[in-house]
Write a structure and sequence with these properties.
alpha+beta; two-stranded antiparallel ribbon; 3 helices
């Protein structure tokens, strides 16, 4: 994902909100798939969940542009 100011604001807000929910909240599972929630994603480098939006966001410079940390979507790692 491209790492820019608007993405950082949206990600901080949504991740903080999702982290404040419990798994019995109606929005918990709906928001778990939201691209702006980072703490339910796996870091491709460590195979561990991100502990915060800031850890996910980076940014990391690739090819002259800023990107977030690479995410692992596979459960087979």
């Amino acid at each position: 994902m491209r790492a820019h100011h608007s993405a950082n604001v949206m990600g901080e807000t949504m991740t903080d909100h999702w982290d404040s929910l419990n798994d019995t909240d109606d929005n918990y599972y709906t928001l778990a798939a939201n691209e702006w929630v980072a703490t339910d994603r796996l870091d491709a480098n460590t195979n561990q969940n991100f502990t915060s939006w800031a850890e996910f966001f980076g940014p990391h410079l690739y090819y002259g542009d800023n990107f977030t940390t690479t995410v692992c979507f596979s459960l087979l790692r």
